[in-house]
Specification:
By secondary structure, the chain is mainly alpha-helical. It is built from 19 helices and no strands. It binds magnesium ion (MG).
Amino acid sequence: MASLTSAPLHAQRLVPAPVSTKIRLALLATALCDALGGPAEFKPRFSFPFISLMKPNGNFSLAAGVWTDDTSMMLALARSLGTYSASSSPQAEGTRGGFDEVDQLETYLRWYQNGVLSAIGRCFDIGSTTRRALGIYKDALKASRALSPAETRRLSPAAKEKEKEKRRTTAKSALARIARDLGGEGFRGNGSLMRVLPVGLAYSCDSAAAAAYARRSSATTHPTAVCQTACAAWTECIARVVRGADAREGEEQISKLDVLHHFAAYPWPADADALRVALAADVPLPAGVVDPAAMEAHYTAHHPLMRLRAATHTEAPAATPSAGDAKALAAGTFALLPSAAALPSSGYVVHTLAAALYAFLATRTFEAGALLTANMGGDADTVAAVYGGLAGVWYAAQEEEGADGEEGLFWSPRVRAWRDALVRRDLIEEVAEELVEFVERHAASF
Ligand SMILES: [Mg+2]
């Protein structure tokens, strides 16, 4: 049994890989975790049998391996970033992709109304705030007598442009209404955080742009300050990890301590104070403390998630049991899992972010963190999906099993089994390619 001291955060370094690998596996990891955690959604922690493989999702009568709204909306945002086109002229092909709120709303609406980018061809679940936001846009389109896409296709090019412009104006006024109606205290769910991953992947070269876009992408359905800030902070972290993964040979990779420091020392704005309470160190790191071990010791004493981690790690077996050793695997996972009172996994955006980050910091492999989040219950699929985005970017590599049988940090027999059981992997891969192509097209301009 390995002890915690053998794996301090500052010794756990980012796995290097090309950005394209990181993007592909981050999207896949999100779907894997979402589908794994789906059956545990709505269930109180420790009230259901241990989940270690894809099971049918009784909440929505889904077969094993079906991913939910979290992945669909993440894919919708990724598709919009990868393929948005301001102009319908063919010359624009080489400049495709970019950030556009109206196009994002349109993509979400196609999922909501027509099941585009759903694992089973229809939207079977949608968060209440997202439903309200898309409802506002739908009503506005109806009031403006906007034509359907099929009707629009039959128009002359000039009339088509005019119709497109009308739709844009309608969307902009709907966005203003969403900002007014859904900006209050009652709308602080995790619906924008769960899909924001592609913004960090697409704009990793420019953290400031990534943060600003993350805020704007949240505001299309979740304009509340705490949701916008959660998206910005998470996205900056994703962007930092992607940049680090592409570091030149010989450069030292960032460690999990850098990820913790990002949140612990983040300049949380006053209008998102709940995030500061959950994620900042209660005693700031003293100036001049730069030694990683000293930094980690400070945070272990003064960061709420690190105190939880230290408390649970005293008894947990750290080695991942083999596939046949289900009892030990369950015991090891449950031992790392604080009570729901100490680490809630509700749909409140602050809870979701903290729980996902905890799972990342408390485990050493993609698989271990995925098991931890899926077994949290509550909003398990969303906590798992958010964790999966970060963990996917962190651990992803095209590694195969080593000659000595040693497993990688991302792939393991269990993770391969999850992948093989995942429904509509082709859809995830298709959207991942769109995002990879966007990033490659725009690499020169960053
Ligand atoms: Mg879901």
